[in-house]
C-alpha cells in the first residue's frame, strides 16, 4: 500500500511536511479453536477483503480524505483502521461463516525490514 500524508506536531520533525509511505501489510486472524474444516478463516475470502480495504487507502493523499481530517495518520493508526475495517467485514460474514468465531485480528504495517507497527483488534464473543 502506498500513501501520502503529513503530520501535525513537533514530535514528527520533518514528517510534518507532505511525504509518502509504502507499506507491506500483514493480517493475522486468531480464534480459540479451529472450525469443522480445521481452519481459522477462509484465507481466500480474507485475502479478497484485505485487498478491498487496502484499495480504499492505496495511492491516496490521506490529508485529502474527509475521514482522516485533523488526524495524524501514523503507521499505528493505519494498522488500526485496516484491522477495524476487516473486523466489520468479518462480523458481516464477508470472510465466511467461520470468521464470526474470530477472537482477534492483528494488522502489521511494515515500512521497512526494521520498522513496523501492529494493532490487534479484539473481536469478543460473536
Describe the fold and architecture.
The protein is of the alpha+beta class and 126 residues long. The chain has one domain (2-122): 6-pyruvoyl tetrahydropterin synthase/QueD (Tetrahydropterin Synthase, Chain A, 2-Layer Sandwich). It is 24% helix and 25% strand. Strand 5 (104-110) and strand 6 form a beta hairpin. Helix 1 packs across helix 2. The relative contact order is 0.22.
Question: Taking strands numbered 1, 2, ... along the chain, how are they ordered across the largest sheet?
Answer: 2-1-4
- Poorly predicted parts: none
Terminal Cα separation, in Å?
Answer: 30 Å
- Average pLDDT for all residues: 95
Reading off the top of the CATH hierarchy, the class is best stated as Alpha Beta
Largest beta-sheet characterization: 3 strands, mixed
- N-to-C SSE series? EEEHEHEE
Q: CATH fold name, please?
A: Tetrahydropterin Synthase, Chain A
Total DSSP helices: 2
Helix content: 10-25%
Structural class category? alpha+beta
Radius of gyration (Å) = 16 Å
Topology, number of strands:
6
Supply the CATH superfamily name.
6-pyruvoyl tetrahydropterin synthase/QueD
Strand content: 15-25%
Q: Tell me the overall shape.
A: elongated
- Give the number of domains: 1
Topology of this protein?
Blueprint lengths: L1 E4 L13 E4 L1 E7 L12 H13 L4 E2 L13 H17 L12 E7 L5 E7 L4
Parallel strand pairs: 1-4
Antiparallel strand pairs: 1-2, 3-5, 5-6
Which key features would you list for this structure?
single chain; 3-stranded antiparallel β-sheet; 126 residues; 2 helices; Tetrahydropterin Synthase, Chain A; alpha+beta; 6 strands
